[in-house]
């Protein structure tokens, strides 16, 4: 019996929620590609298989619950979603720091970690979302218990800004999956796929979150994920008026750093994680992604803003303020105070240094420099 058979997952989600209206079934194709790769390539441990099945059913259940919520509250479809900027860049290029800085501005907003885990209100839940927040705290604690070294790579804040790509997980069209699992056939499919329906749904998820939180009225969204690099044209088509913010750091440093993060995450699901497979996979993938990004950028150069990693880490607050200027939202005193407060919190919670070498992941500085030679914007 295939524990990840699509029909079984759909049936379990229906049984779990008592709902059966999935609506447009376009998502079944990416779900099928993913589950086939998980079954044939990921080498899941017994625990990994159980966790993965639970996760997929939960994502499907969220689709059902979100559909019910929108049917009961058709006003959600009229909620305005205004995106100021979409932060891209390779992973480990300062994008998280920039995202959290900008999200601290009183005029901007971002998806919060607990929202990306539990975006749909539970039946009978109050506006404080207490149950979802409790579960999110416990989930973050469990994640760090399973991968304690992860905190040295990426700071987890259950109530802080987190990548909106985690909302895209519910479309099964998301870079999350080949970051957590060795599923190269899924990664190949994802790079070729038309992501228009996934981004249409991302907009719907943002509207649902805005509807739940009136305090977000009038605030523009700051989105962030390296996933968006694969579909910058679709991003710009979906969010009119938005700008792509590209963070730049030498791939010689960024790629091995991300490989170490992937090894940490995927070890939760498989006992057969090979770092020397992980490194070349992501090196090849990011090289292809940047080539595609460059071609797309050339068609709409006015929609892109660049920020160098070395400038960001040298003066984060000034970099964030300068970016607001580029976005037509000149920084004011409230923005600067928010940036300073965030940086104080960040310094207080920073963990040990993250150490690794390219060779740890089957890579070398020479090979990376050669493979990314066409990356014109890269700086160290």
Protein traits:
380 residues; Sulfotransferase family protein; five-stranded parallel beta sheet; globular; alpha/beta; single chain; Stf3_sulfotransferase; Rossmann fold; P-loop_NTPase
Alpha carbon gap, first and last residue: 50 Å
* Approximate helicity band: 40-55%
Largest sheet: 5 strands, parallel
User: What do the pLDDT scores average to?
Assistant: 92
Characterization of the model:
It is a single chain. With about 375 residues, the protein is of the alpha/beta class. The protein has a single domain, classed as 3-Layer(aba) Sandwich (Rossmann fold), CATH 3.40.50. It contains 17 helices and five strands. About 55% of the residues lie in helices and about 5% in strands. The radius of gyration is 20 Å and the shape is globular. α1 packs across α3, α2 runs antiparallel to α9 and α12 crosses α13. It has a five-stranded parallel sheet, with helices on both faces.
Which secondary structure elements does this structure contain, and how are they paired or packed?
Elements: H1 6-17, H2 28-40, H3 46-72, E1 83-87, H4 95-103, E2 108-109, H5 113-117, H6 130-146, H7 165-168, H8 175-180, H9 184-192, H10 196-212, E3 220-224, H11 232-238, E4 243-248, H12 251-266, H13 275-297, E5 304-308, H14 309-314, H15 316-326, H16 333-349, H17 365-371
Parallel strand pairs: 1-3, 1-4, 2-3, 4-5
Helix pairs in contact: 1-3, 2-9, 4-15, 12-13, 12-17, 15-16
